[in-house]
Amino acid sequence: AWKKHSAQGFKTKEEFQDETVRHIETSLARSLFNCDELAAYSGASLAFRDRLIIEWNKTQQRQTFAGQKRVYYFSLEFLMGRALDNAMLNVGLKDVARDGLSELGFRIEDVISQEHDAALGNGGLGRLAACFLDSMATMNYPAWGYALRYKYGIFKQEIVDGYQVEIPDYWLDFNPWEFPRHDITVDIQFYGSVNKHQNEDGKTLSVWEGGEIVQAVAYDAPIPGYETSTTNNLRLWSSKASSGEFDFQKFNAGEYEGSVADQQRAETISAVLYPNDNLDRGKELRLKQQYFWCAASLFDIVRRFKKTKKPWSAFPDQVAIQLNDTHPTLAIVELQRILIDLEGLEWDDAWHIVVNTFGYTNHTVMPEALEKWSVPLLQHLLPRHLLIIYDINMKFLQMVEKQFPKDRDLLGRVSIIEESQPKMVRMAFLATIGSHKVNGVAELHSDLVKTTILKDFVKIYGPDKFTNVTNGITPRRWLHQANPRLSELIASKVGSYEFLKDLTLLNKLEHYVDDKDFKKEWQDIKYANKVRLAQHIMNTTGVKVNPKALFDIQVKRIHEYKRQQLNILGVIHRYLTIKAMSAEERKKLAPRVSIFGGKAAPGYWMAKTIIHLVCSVGEVVNNDKDVGDLLKVIYIEDYNVSKAEIITPASDISEHISTAGTEASGTSNMKFVLNGGLIIGTCDGANIEITREIGENNIFLFGNLAEDVEDLRHAHTYGKFQLDEDLKKVFDAIKGGLFGDAGHFSALCNSIVDHGDYYLVSDDFNSYVKTHALVDEAYKDQDEWVSKCITSVSRMGFFSSDRCIQEYADMIWNVEPLPPKP
Ligand code: 26Q
Q1: Predicted TM-score of the model (pTM)
Q2: ipTM higher than 0.90?
Q3: CA pair distance 177, 166, nearest whole angstrom
């Protein structure tokens, strides 16, 4: 007769202190006499962790008993950032913790900043997954995330002499937020061969035999909702040599090194996050990661389903799996394999279950980012899966052939197998065929999906299979946590913090657009946020920036399509213009700080060159006495989630300037506007919907439209290309060595001047520079500027990730929330 413990967790400052101190002294075995900030962080985290665990257990039990459908979000990336601050706010005890820590002699900010970011992602796609977890928990959806427990997250970036250097991100030293589940393991098979066997009924079965086994071990992390006791689960798989394999035979035969090498090979699977963003590289280890993670997760889900004793036909009523891009597409094949090879279902019955289980989210239409895997590689690594892919393709093509007889071109175009040398498996096609819904992440992007890469599939399946769910962000982290003063000011006007759960309530702010006191407070908060960022810049770069200057920020992964090169070329143009001005003219100019941040994929030379150009321009401009405060150029090292929490609230204007049609959505655009900054952007991704919501007077749009991009590119290739005159002067300055060795930048310049300017930098340059002049003008009228900011924030309700989750739940998953009993 076990007695259930009745821990409730602390509620008061004193109880919090007791728990924290107890953890420092016992869990950490440290004396209070030498308790530093790290120990305080560790103790406080363990105290909050205890609280989360209690609710986490209850939530999981409740979800199991309720027996309703659950959502499984499959993503190779979850860019979580820090957990403690989020846990404090979601549980509603940050003030208690602040007071408690303060009495113990610590500032809560210093304690919070001890935590290492959980950086298991590259950029937008990974952060989206993290925002979705927050929203699903907050809205009480029974939902799990599934991913890999990388030993190394996205690399840490150092800027050394103006160049990016990558440092491994070993983040697991002390991580109180994860729980190893050594009892939850799955054996995952690789390689081997497929053989036909007859079962007792004389039916021929394909059996996958031989090869090697790697073990997946589960690690769980609690995901607390905001102001609800619902605490969901993020399950991460770690790879290790399967116990049978780490091999006592070898060991005993004296091959100690050999057996250790086997173990290391197994552990390599979950060792490192691939640092490419929007680029597909067909590496075997990446494919192994994908299968390892999909197979372990599906085994887990199927095991859970079997406990319900429901018939297989009920599987899609119990399970919704969302595929975050094509990275988990093998899950479709794996579920079909489980059902037909292991559970003995007929192909058609199994396939019906599979299609109704999966939904696929597309995040790009750029050809170089669309995933393809070579047939020989799949044959080698996953021979049974390749056969199933061929069968899926055959049945699909037969269906198409019936619907469109004799259209051989069509069959070639939509075949999962690309008839190249070697043959390739097109993962986006497989994901589309194996899912009941396909969605893009902003309206323009979803339209492009339907008219470009998946055009033929719309003809085949009809338009209803394809939909849009415009991205969103969690207002808890991206407003309340990152910008507490603004959140508090808003709450004081709209009456409560209810807007954090229903962001459309922000519209009540519109009454205060002309309220003098309110505007003054608004400005004070922005200024304080800029002072904080200026301090960070001072500490990390040694450059002093004036917080009264206009802060112009572009922080995101470095990519030619995102056009940081357009930004820095514009900055050089500004610099040349300032240099050519008289002292009188200079006085009229609004001082500016141009701030860049973001990581380049380690193998992406052009992106690294862009970083180097920004840093080189900074060196010159920041030390030019003529220029002074009129222009500063800053590169913020190692942009990540916790840096974003400091940077986002400090912008006056931010840049979202991708070539039209290339940025699927963008999400930092939403973060910046929600924090009271205006944006300059192209008609791309979610910028278009932001404009529709906040009004075109409140955004600085420029540049060519997506529908014209193809023709412009065509014109370049056929010699009708005229380099913009101002841009030519900028290139002349670079070529003249103004920013150091011109040779460093020749490939970058040539990509625009000689090599077709694929991203239309020259075509958009004039419009970009003119629009920045409008920004300068607008900034001079501070009163009007602040009104624009307030109006914009009041109209941002649509971009909450809660709204996204509602749309996914209703249109794609067909799941209901399961609120806790009051
Ligand atoms: C693929 C194959 C091999 C190795 C890596 C990859 C890989 C990894 C990451 C491919 C793509 C990504 C990440 C893509 C991404 O972040 N896309 C962004 O998704 C955001 C959320 O929908 C959008 O807002 C952005 O517009 C989109 O670029």
Answers
A1: 0.97
A2: yes
A3: 26
